[in-house]
């Protein structure tokens, strides 16, 4: 399979500045040396608690924010050092769908203006008639009729607004989409409709997704492979089926155990329950970043950062227990 996205040793720190001279006094270590690939046509899931660095990863991959160090290649093009013309060309191929479609859609613009904007910026040669035709096609793709074109975002329900957000992301026919918690703000009954729409579009348009969510049920349904993030690191990555049936990292095990179990007879004795809050990404724990919460913590864990262990094809995790 072709690698569409290649991320190597990505680091992102946000400086913390203070005082009159704006002196840097520390840094938020949002992403700590992560590497992963996404293959063409694949959906890679990114899962983890709030603040673990999922959105920052998505924004770095799209080139929306510069990483502190590391490499991001899209279709073999290094975006961290690309010139502005190359970036503009790549931008057309990559889009983002946000959690809250209401805040990402300009409330003062009609659906028509919202969807027309990318064409005005990137496809200046298209006639008005051709653009209008494309808008109707786009709405059809996301299950809406052209009658919505002259309406404003506030006139729609959350699910419909997310359909408009998706249509906007698709305007320039991207190849890669970062879906950042695309259904988290929606009613549970609407979530399935939007997930099914994203799946349908993926198949029809041969899209590649980075799918960000803290909801393990959604990730399981949508993703081919899953990367589990903890404090800016990928602690485990595996094909979805493998990760859910054979989780190896204590953090992945704890996350999976926090999902409600529908079967009351299921043995819960081996369940690890995640205790305490995520440590601050400003003062990171030494060694294994999970050692302050891990039920299996050993002496070595606070001293030495574990390496990745290859567990099977495409399945690796970083924990001293696996060495
Ligand atoms: N622009 C910024 N300036 C400073 N710190 C930031 C900035 N953006 C993100 N952070 C910090 O980086 C860390 C990772 O944030 P990020 O938004 O990537 O997490 P997340 O996993 O997407 O969380 P959530 O599930 O809540 O969306 C957090 O500690 C966050 O406060
Ligand atoms: S390295 Fe140690 S602290 Fe970290 S997950 Fe493994 S057992 Fe737990
Ligand atoms: Mg986020």
List its salient traits.
25% strand; binds iron/sulfur cluster; alpha/beta; 8-stranded mixed sheet; 323 residues; Rossmann fold; 4-stranded antiparallel sheet; binds magnesium ion; binds adenosine-5'-triphosphate; 31% helix
CATH architecture: 3-Layer(aba) Sandwich
Query: What count of structural domains?
Result: 1
Q: What structural class do you assign from the helix and strand content?
A: alpha/beta
Q: List the bound ligands.
A: adenosine-5'-triphosphate, iron/sulfur cluster, magnesium ion
Described by its quaternary structure, the protein is: single chain
**Termini Cα gap:** 29 Å
Could you write a compact summary of the structure shown?
This protein has 323 residues and is an alpha/beta fold.
Description:
The chain is α/β, with parallel strands linked by helices and 323 residues long. It has a single domain (3-247), classed as Rossmann fold. Helix content is 31%, strand content 25%. Strands 6-7-8-3-9-10-12-11 form an eight-stranded mixed β-sheet, sandwiched between helices. The protein has a four-stranded antiparallel β-sheet with strand order 2-1-4-5, covered by helices on one side. Helix 6 (158-170) runs parallel beside helix 7 (188-205). The model has no long low-confidence stretch (mean pLDDT 91). The structure holds adenosine-5'-triphosphate (ATP), iron/sulfur cluster and magnesium ion. Iron/sulfur cluster binds next to loops.
């Amino acid at each position: 399979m072709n690698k569409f996205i290649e991320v190597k040793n990505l680091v992102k720190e946000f400086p913390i500045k203070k005082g009159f001279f704006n002196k840097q006094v520390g840094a938020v270590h949002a992403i700590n040396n992560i590497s992963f690939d996404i293959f063409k046509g694949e959906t890679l899931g990114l899962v983890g608690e709030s603040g673990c660095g999922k959105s920052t990863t998505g924004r770095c991959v799209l080139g929306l924010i510069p990483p502190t160090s590391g490499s991001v290649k899209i279709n073999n093009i290094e975006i961290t050092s690309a010139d502005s013309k190359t970036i503009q060309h790549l931008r057309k191929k990559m889009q983002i769908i946000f959690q809250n479609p209401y805040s990402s859609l300009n409330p003062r613009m009609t659906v028509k203006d919202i969807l027309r904007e990318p064409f005005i910026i990137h496809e200046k040669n298209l006639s008005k008639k051709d653009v209008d035709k494309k808008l109707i096609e786009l709405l059809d793709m996301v299950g809406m009729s052209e009658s919505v074109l002259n309406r404003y975002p506030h006139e729609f329900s959350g699910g419909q607004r997310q359909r408009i957000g998706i249509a906007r992301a698709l305007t320039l026919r991207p190849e890669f989409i970062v879906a950042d918690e695309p259904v988290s703000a929606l009613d549970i009954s609407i979530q399935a409709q939007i997930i099914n729409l994203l799946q349908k579009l993926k198949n029809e348009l041969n899209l590649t997704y980075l799918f960000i969510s803290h909801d393990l049920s959604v990730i399981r349904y949508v993703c081919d492979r899953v990367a589990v993030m903890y404090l800016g690191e990928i602690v485990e990555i595996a094909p979805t089926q493998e990760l859910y049936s054979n989780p190896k990292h204590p953090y992945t095990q704890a996350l999976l155990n926090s999902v409600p179990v529908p079967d009351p007879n299921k043995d819960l004795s081996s369940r690890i329950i995640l205790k305490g809050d995520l440590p601050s990404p400003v003062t990171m724990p030494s060694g294994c970043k999970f050692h302050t919460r891990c039920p299996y913590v050993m002496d070595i864990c606070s001293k030495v950062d574990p390496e990745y262990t290859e567990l099977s094809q495409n399945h690796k995790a970083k924990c001293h227990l696996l060495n």
